[in-house]
Design goal:
Blueprint (H helix, E strand, L loop, with lengths): L4 H11 L15 H9 L7 E6 L7 H10 L3 E6 L16 H18 L2 E4 L11 H7 L2 H15 L3 E4 L10 H16 L7 H5 L9 E4 L10 E4 L3 E2 L4 E2 H9 L17 E9 L26 H20 L9 H18 L6 H21 L1 E7 L3 E2 L4 E10 L4 E4 L3 E3 L5 E5 L22 E2 L6 E3 L4 E9 L40 E10 L2 E10 L1 E6 L3 E6 L1 E2 L3 E5 L3 E5 L6 E9 L5 E8 L5 E3 L2 E6 L5 E9 L7 E11 L2 E3 L2 E6 L7 E6 L2 E6 L8 E4 L6 H7 L4 E3 L7 H4 L4 E4 L3 H4 L1 H5 L1 H9 L3 E4 L5 H5 L6 E3 L13 E3 L5 H4 L21 E4 L7 E3 L11 E6 L2 E6 L3 H4 L5 H12 L2 H8 L2
Parallel strand pairs: 1-2, 1-4, 2-3, 4-5, 10-21, 11-23, 16-18, 25-35, 36-37, 36-38, 38-39, 39-45
Antiparallel strand pairs: 5-9, 6-9, 7-8, 10-12, 12-18, 13-17, 13-19, 14-19, 15-18, 19-20, 21-22, 24-26, 26-30, 27-29, 27-31, 28-30, 31-32, 31-35, 33-34, 40-42, 41-43, 44-45
Helix pairs in contact: 1-4, 2-12, 3-9, 4-9, 5-7, 6-7, 10-11, 11-12
Length: 896
């Protein structure tokens, strides 16, 4: 079995239930399996909200058992999007990493079947206490995010993954536990956050609050069996959950799918229904649909009983080989449900209406599944630009004895967009179906977009539309990045319905309403799904991508932050990559707006891009005014296309195989930082680790750097370099480095300088350093970016040459000082820096250096990967010292 086959099957399975986020469109499962999963959701009213701080904190086994196994409406609320972590699969950090981890949570939810919500808190990095976290996260505002979600999702049971005590470790975890307890009480209190009520979030009091008693083996708890075999999957819920967990690839969370019994333990914290701590999860909670319909009268009660009976009969009659045998019972259930919806309609919005509408939606999908009806809504392009017209096709097929009568599907578009039907007499280019399509291609039956149509069993019908994007359409952007952050808090979007959602909904939706005739029954069915783009790859086959609006061109600085060493005379080149998202050619010109006294040549540069994916790099020779002005300056590009000014936007598609691609847009300006820094003329080799900007930072200091690839470990090749730098977590991701570690140390003994950036616990296992170094477990770290730094050995070579460092060089650092510090090392290492978070003893493990033979070995856990990207002057000055030193100069400085 291929490694992704289980994931693909389950993710596609989820597509029938969560079409907005699935990687495929429409169901690709046997109708009986899809319908079986839906039937689990049609009887009973049960909602559970699991709450924690970060992507990866959730209990996926619990979510899978609840959502897939029990048919519960389950959801996970994460206070943050994980922006403060590390990235194993790429170089994105901060907001870019937040987009990746949000996508990974959505990929996980398509597998485990739960929904996903987010708060506005920005993950500012590791925090050791709740107090420190609350200094950055306004308590009431962060609490209000969870209260809003509770009021909108309306869970009966709230489950906290954290206790709200110091046992939780991470300060974010502690805050999550504390605020979940507060929200349990606040969500039902109309005097708390009354503005939410006006925005459509009525008070709601969950009936039970549980928490996960992690590592508390003696705590009173109930056990949820998560290792039961699910006959619809052929897997246990725990196995499905571990595939969900493996979607957190940026965090190195790939895991096996183990067989055998598993449980999740939950401790009762509070209950409004009087149940004891050892009673089952739903004890005391009225989960019947009938409890919501007591005011509808006896006729409605009879319909409700008949509905439940029909659902039971549908499940009992469902056959994998003849799923249509369930149709009479599904028809009866839908008819009863429609009468109940009509009876409930005068009551307006209510809990009952919500549940009836949800069941009708699910029942219609179940009927289509067993009747063999499939709907695909395709666009011929996925990245749209302002002014573009894209062909959209609605395809409806019937493959299991069902006939359909239907009006033309409706394509729903945002304001300002236009839709025009294309008749069968108009020819369009055939859709790409791959290299073998020519052997089995058949003519598509194209219907009139203004007339009612009929599709017989075994037939496929298609409608075509021309959809035009307005010329002033803004580029797609995650709602949480549309406005500047307020400190460490994103701002809510203007539309209340978007609050707590992962991203904005798809721009185009297709609505299909049909009368389905099958097995002697007639059904009025209506489904709405997003329009997506189908791709066909000769290696991986079919794929589906969401539609997004991008700027016509993207302007990206090759160095968004430019270090300009003080004392550097003359000019430097600032370069931009201009790339096209448009399918047709684009021509224009680009120029630079500079601070007063600065100059650029040429004044403007023309560019011409042949079509989508075309890239042109342009450069400007920039010269500052005379003098030694230091500080921060900005060079802002501008562009004109066809004589009209358009925003110079940097647009990047964050695109990995396991998540939906998302467009990240931002300012294309170049930030110039001028400060005094010197560096020796050294030849630098760089071993990339899990992803950082180290090579670019070296180039900005004026040095050449070459990447050391897996085949570059021969002594002759290594001897081309004076200094070799290992990227972050290199020993975790570079097996060639592990195999060649002896060669690397031998090179150092011959006179080279090795600079090792932070690694995790793998570093302890291999004894990779020339003298013992042990990463602490748990690893010491200094999370306060402004924690005082003491130069414990101010005359140490790494602190004096070529830049003499002082306390000012440790000002302006971002997020943290460092992580995964050693807590023990050989006495031959010099440890010149001392630092600690508030209230903790001094730590000297951030920077260790020792001579090795004729060379030098340096190990640093300082977070250079964050500081260099942010252009922190003091970090660059220390970085320059590490690159510049060699063994002989070390001995001269260190000699008494």
């Amino acid at each position: 079995m291929q490694p992704r086959s289980i994931s693909a099957a389950i993710a596609v399975l989820a597509s029938c239930l969560l079409p907005a986020f699935a990687h495929a469109q429409g169901s690709r499962l046997p109708g009986a399996i899809e319908t079986g999963l839906i039937l689990r959701q049609l009887d009973g009213v049960k909602r559970v909200l699991v709450v924690a701080a970060h992507p990866d904190d959730e209990d996926t086994a619990l979510l899978t058992t609840l959502a897939r196994g029990w048919g519960v409406e389950a959801a996970y609320f994460s206070f943050t999007r994980g922006e403060g972590g590390q990235n194993l699969i790429g170089t994105e950090l901060g907001e870019g990493l937040g987009i990746i981890r949000s996508g990974e949570l959505l990929a996980a939810r398509t597998i485990d079947g739960a929904q996903q919500f987010f708060g506005r808190a920005f993950d500012f990095g590791y925090s050791k206490t709740a107090e420190e976290t609350f200094e950055k996260w306004p308590r009431e505002r962060v609490l209000s995010d969870l209260v809003w979600t509770i009021r909108r999702f309306r869970p009966h049971v709230l489950i906290s993954m954290w206790s709200g005590t110091e046992r939780d470790g991470h300060g974010h975890h502690q805050v999550s536990g504390l605020l979940t307890r507060e929200a349990f009480d606040a969500a039902g209190d109309a005097t708390r956050f009354p503005e939410q009520i006006a925005a459509g979030a009525a008070p709601w009091a969950p009936l039970k609050l549980y928490r996960r008693p992690l590592f508390e083996l003696n705590a009173t708890a109930i056990e949820i069996e998560t290792g039961a075999l699910d006959p619809l999957f052929g897997l246990t819920h725990h196995q499905v959950a571990m595939d969900s967990r493996s979607q957190h690839r940026s965090q190195d969370f790939g895991t096996a799918l183990p067989l055998g019994p598993r449980v999740t333990r939950l401790s009762l914290v509070s209950s409004r229904v009087g149940s004891s701590p050892t009673e089952p999860l739903w004890a005391g909670v009225d989960t019947t649909l009938a409890s919501l319909a007591t005011d509808l009268g006896e006729t409605a009660q009879a319909d409700l009983r008949s509905y439940r009976d029909a659902i039971g009969r549908a499940g009992g009659s469902l056959s994998a080989t003849r799923p249509e045998t369930a149709l009479p019972f599904l028809a009866d259930a839908l008819g009863r449900l429609e009468r109940l919806r009509a009876a409930a309609r005068p009551a307006g919005e209510s809990e009952l209406r919500r549940e009836l509408d949800r069941r009708a939606h699910l029942l219609m999908r179940a009927i289509l599944a067993v009747a063999g009806v499939r709907v695909e809504l395709r666009a011929r392009d996925d990245v749209l630009v302002p002014g573009q017209t894209v062909l959209v096709e609605a395809r409806v097929s019937s493959g299991a004895g069902a006939s359909l009568e239907l009006d033309p599907p409706v394509i729903e578009v945002p304001p300002g967009w236009s839709v025009e039907g294309i008749g069968p007499d108009v020819e369009t280019e055939p859709d790409d179906a791959g290299p073998f399509a020519r052997f089995f291609r058949q003519a598509d039956v194209v219907f009139d977009p203004s007339a009612r149509a009929r599709i017989e069993p075994g037939e496929l019908g298609m409608w075509r539309y021309a959809v035009t994007v307005p010329a002033d359409a803004p580029p797609a952007s995650p709602w949480f990045l549309e406005q500047p952050r307020d400190g460490d808090l994103y701002q809510w979007p203007a539309e209340p319905d978007l609050r707590a959602l992962p991203f904005r909904p798809p721009p185009l939706l297709g609505r299909v309403a049909a009368v389905v005739s099958a097995a002697g029954e007639r059904f009025d069915i209506e489904v709405t799904d997003p329009v997506r783009h189908r791709t066909v790859d000769g290696v991986t086959g079919e794929g589906w991508r969401p539609l997004q609006v991008a700027p016509r061109v993207s302007v990206e600085a090759t160095a968004p932050t430019l270090i300009w060493p003080g004392g550097h005379q003359g000019s430097r080149v600032i370069a931009f990559r201009i790339s096209s998202f448009a399918r047709n050619a684009t021509a224009g010109e680009i120029g630079l707006d500079l601070p007063p006294g600065w100059s650029a040549a040429p004044d403007t540069t023309a560019f011409e891009l042949a079509g989508e994916g075309a890239v042109q790099t342009v450069g400007f020779t920039v010269e500052p005014p005379g003098g030694e002005a230091e500080g921060e300056f900005f060079a802002r590009p501008w562009i004109r296309i066809a004589g009209a000014a358009v925003p110079a936007t940097h647009a990047t598609m964050i695109d990995y195989p396991h998540i939906e691609p998302r467009l990240l847009t931002g300012d294309a300006a170049v930030r110039i930082v001028r400060f005094p820094v010197r560096v020796a003329d050294r030849r630098i080799g760089y071993v990339m680790g899990s992803g950082d900007d180290g090579p670019e930072a070296i180039r900005q200091l004026g040095l050449d750097v070459e990447l050391i690839e897996p085949g570059d470990w021969e002594a002759e090749r290594l001897d081309e370099f004076d200094t070799i730098v290992l990227g972050i977590r290199a020993y975790e991701v570079r097996e060639d480095l592990i195999a060649a570690n002896a060669e690397l140390l031998a090179w150092a003994e011959r006179g080279g300088t090795v600079v090792v950036q932070y690694n995790r616990y793998e570093f302890n296992q291999g004894a990779y350093a020339p003298y013992p170094i042990a990463i602490g477990r748990p690893a010491p770290r200094v999370t306060e970016e402004n924690a005082p730094v003491t130069l414990a050995a101010p005359g140490a070579p790494v602190l004096v040459e070529p830049n003499r460092l002082g306390p000012a060089d440790f000002e302006g650092w971002v997020q943290e000082r460092g992580l995964y510090f050693p807590d023990a090392w050989d006495e031959r290492y010099q440890a010149p820096l001392e630092m600690a978070d508030t209230g903790e003893p001094p730590n000297r493990g951030s920077l260790l250096a020792a001579p090795v033979g004729r060379g030098l070995y340096i190990h640093t856990s300082l977070s250079f990967f964050r500081q260099l990207r942010a252009g922190v002057p003091g970090a660059f000055r220390l970085w320059a010292n590490l690159l510049s030193l060699d063994g002989s100069r070390w001995r001269e400085i260190a000699a008494p």
